[in-house]
Amino acid sequence: MGLPQWQHSSWPKRWFANPSGTQLADYAKQLNSVEGNTTFYHLPSPQTVDNWAAATPADFRFTFKFHSDISHKSSLQHCDTLVTEQLNLLARLEHRLGQVMLQLPAGFGPAQLPLLESFLKRLSPAFSYAVEVRHLAFFAKGEQEKALNRLFMAHGVNRVIMDTRALFTGPADSALTAEVRTKKPRVPVNVIATSNQPVMRFVGNNNDQDNAACLHPWIDKCQQWREQGKSCYLFFHRPDNQDAPWLAQQFIAAYNQRFPDSALPALHFAPSQDDLQSQLF
Fold first, then answer.
1. Quick one: which of 104, 192, 236, 269 could link to 248 by a disulfide (CB 3.0–4.6 Å)?
2. Prediction pTM value
3. Which domain holds residue 158?
């Protein structure tokens, strides 16, 4: 379980209660995964990757995206050198590397499935992979979606489930929410585990009730996957991701109330100003 980033300028004070600047280490004390978007834009140095590994415990799992030059610029063609370079870099994380995620653009549709199949065949079997699609034909529950799912199952690839229902519920309550809506896909939530590490990316809004309604079905599904021996990856986003830890905690609290015998570790936050005032009086 994790967030789309491990650091934010507000978190040392609001979440970690630790101004030391060791945000990745502080983050990894409370959550055991992260959705790393940095590699979508640029590849880190080997030393940076080594520093990430050193800052996290052995059971922490990074999930990083393939570089956009692979998924968007080249459309999975003529990119083997860059793929190899990126995988060799991430291999330095060893067992701390959970999955490598391929995020495909909305224009990548059924006609490009042969390109995706060829790409998956060329990938090293030493890693776990997840793929996110955004073309609406892959959500229509027809033959084209079935072909996609069969492809993922044949290669042991996890299909990423993007749940943006809460984000698009009601009118946008801020300019930031309106902007985020232009960037996130509005696609149906077709729940399927095509391999043993299903990935769910949940994008909430700023209304706890909206978020609770959309989070609720994931409580039983997460438990079902755990009982089936699957390792599900859950990532929580908000329009302003400084608030994402509280969305994750909202899910954890609801899950633990429903399944106390298999409870998830709760997050611990720095005392708020109201809490501090109540302690004084």
1. 236
2. 0.94
3. 2-280
